[in-house]
Structures are given as structure tokens and as C-alpha cells.
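This section describes the prediction task in plain terms. A model, or a person checking by hand, is given the sequence of a single protein chain and must write out its three-dimensional structure as a string of C-alpha cells. No templates, partner chains or ligands are provided. The sample shown here is typical of the held-out split.
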Amino acid sequence: MKPNVLIVDDDDVNNFLCRRIISATNFSDNVTTFINADMALDYLESNASEISVLPDIIFLDINMPVKNGWDFLEEYKSVKPRLKKPIKIYMLSSSVYPDDIAKANNYEDVTSYISKPLSESILSNIEI
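The expected answer:
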């Protein structure tokens, strides 16, 4: 079964490239993108009981204006109990700072930290 994917990144070019690689590798047929964390959190809350709509995987950028990836993760903690299925969150960032990687690994909701760009080899290592 192919996963539903949610991409949260303020960079439209990155979102386009992620969609292309996900499509080209046949990883998923259902990719939703949001350019800010608030929109993504609203989407999750609005669809909390819709198992077929909720993502299986979230690719989350760290550096976004207004509300960054860390802010998203903090608010996600209060949304998560209402979600009717588990979601794997992958930090997808251009940041290579060891502090960011360590911080991401301290969040129990973060499955893994991935350096941009998303690639076929990265997708092939993701367990669904």
C-alpha cells in the first residue's frame, strides 16, 4: 500500500521537486503540500478522524517563516492524540547543523532527519 504524504515547506521549488521524485519513484499517489505550519496543523485537525485522508508520512522543513518546524512539532503534540492513525514525521531540511539533527532526534514524534534534497535512495529506505 502506498502512503499518503504531507510536505510542509515554505519553498515552492522544493515542494515541486519532492512531488516529482515521489511520483517518479511511484512512492505515493497522494501528496499534499502546505507552505506553512499553521495550514498543515489545521489540515491534520480538520481530518483527525479521516484515516484515508490523514498522511502516513510528513516531510517537515525546519526553517520556515512565522512558525518553523520546531513550532509545528510542539503544536503537533496536542493534535496527535486526536489523530486516528500513526504518522511518521521526517525532518527534511537543508540544515546540516549538528544541533538541529540532535534536536530533531530528541522529539519522539520524529522518525528521522533527512538532508535535502529528497531522493530515490532516501525514499527507498523509508519504511511504510
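For orientation: The chain has a mean pLDDT of 96.
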